[in-house]
Amino acid sequence: MTSLQSPSDLVMIRPHHFVSNPETCADNAFQTRPNLDEGAVADSALREFDSTVETLRSAGVSVLVFDDDTPGTPDSVFPNNWFSTHAGGHIAVYPMFAENRRRERRWDVIEALKQRYRVQDVIDYSGMEQDDLWLEGTGAMVLDHIGRVAYVAKSNRADPVLLERFCTHFNFEPMAFDAKDSQGRDVYHTNVLMSVATRFALICLDMIVDPTRRDQVVQRLEETGRTVIDLSEAQINAFAGNALELSVSDGRILALSETALAALSKGQMAQIEDSAALLPLRIPTIETAGGSVRCMMAGIHLSPRKV
């Protein structure tokens, strides 16, 4: 069952030197330090990655894997921040806040996509880093491909000028809002706060600061036919918002971490399972870097070339 919202193909980057990124810990409240040496952490992350890919493929998802053997790219397992793909044959490449994350951009990945899928153009925003402007892909933006809305928690990772430019190029309506945790810290990436699927949306409404804007977000989601499943901040901290719906041959699945699944209530799981089967993935080491399942997956919204 195909869905405009939910890709059936993914790009994932296999990390050989994974570590919690020291350049992003200042404003990523989700990062932690694992109690292992760096070599053991990297080995554990690699095993988690391989198991995740195997589980996804067994579920019917097509996964295009690229190895990253570069020591200086600790967050390369999270490719959704540096590029996104869009129906009609469009690719966007994004400017990144942390200098060591800029090295994650790989044109061999873009060229491989051109070989396998119909790509009309690549719009490269990465040069805006020279002006200290950043827009970190589908981490900074949660995209409703059906309703054409870009939901964005305001932060230094989502420059408003670049957001407007992206929305103009790719035909989205920007819907930005202030979002903070209970300690008053900005939510650094929108995709830890919410996930938009075909028939439902996971979101922590309490973390949207302005009540009027909160109501507008709910209204917009409901107008596009979504059931709004409200998450608590504790569930967000367990990465319950960092999930991605995928299309497989017999329906849709929601890929999320075991940590996230354990945080959901039975009622919330039942609401999700009305339209998507739950697919839990075990990635506790990778989650120490401050991202979870959704961050690991760059969805491919392109038409495949006929072989």
Automatic annotation (TrEMBL):
<dbReference type="Pfam" id="PF19420">
    <property type="entry name" value="DDAH_eukar"/>
</dbReference>
<dbReference type="InterPro" id="IPR014541">
    <property type="entry name" value="Amdntrnsf_FN0238"/>
</dbReference>
<keyword id="KW-0808">Transferase</keyword>
<dbReference type="GO" id="GO:0016740">
    <property type="term" value="F:transferase activity"/>
</dbReference>
<protein>
    <submittedName>
        <fullName>Amidinotransferase</fullName>
    </submittedName>
</protein>
